[in-house]
From TrEMBL:
This is Metalloregulator ArsR/SmtB family transcription factor. Residues 1-95 form the HTH arsR-type domain. InterPro entries: ArsR-like_HTH, HTH_ArsR_DNA-bd_dom, Metal_resp_trans_reg, WH-like_DNA-bd_sf, WH_DNA-bd_sf. It comes from Bosea rubneri. Coiled coil: none annotated. PANTHER family: ARSENICAL RESISTANCE OPERON REPRESSOR ARSR-RELATED. Keywords: DNA-binding, Transcription, Transcription regulation. The keyword Lipoprotein does not apply.
Length: 104
């Protein structure tokens, strides 16, 4: 992952509503959730949810799939893993310790 992509994803997650939305989808698992259930859990207007979903989709953190008349939202786990890896891959490298970030 390059630094521009990581910065863009972190910026998208830097909004409280989007971070809550993303956490709802991460907790939901690989099956995701219908938009109506996401809206219910967050207690926000549909237009607000749509705005925040689009930002997460543009940054590759969330996907949507239409199933008949239902729109399913899912966290994109490989993107989450890549972002977390980007943040931790060089942890303590200059100290010469393990990548766990904990002193021996």
């Amino acid at each position: 992952m390059d630094i521009e992509a990581a910065a863009s994803q972190l910026e998208a997650l830097g909004n409280q509503t989007r971070l809550q939305l993303y956490r709802v989808l991460v907790r939901a698992g690989r099956n995701g959730l219908p938009v109506a259930q996401v809206q219910e859990r967050l207690g926000i207007p549909a237009s607000t949810l749509s705005h925040h979903l689009q930002r997460l989709i543009r940054n590759g953190l969330v996907s949507q799939e239409r199933q008949a008349t239902t729109l399913i939202c899912r966290a994109v786990y490989p993107a989450m893993d890549a972002l977390l890896g980007f943040l931790s891959e060089e942890c303590c490298i200059e100290e010469g310790c393990s990548s766990s970030g904990k002193a021996a």
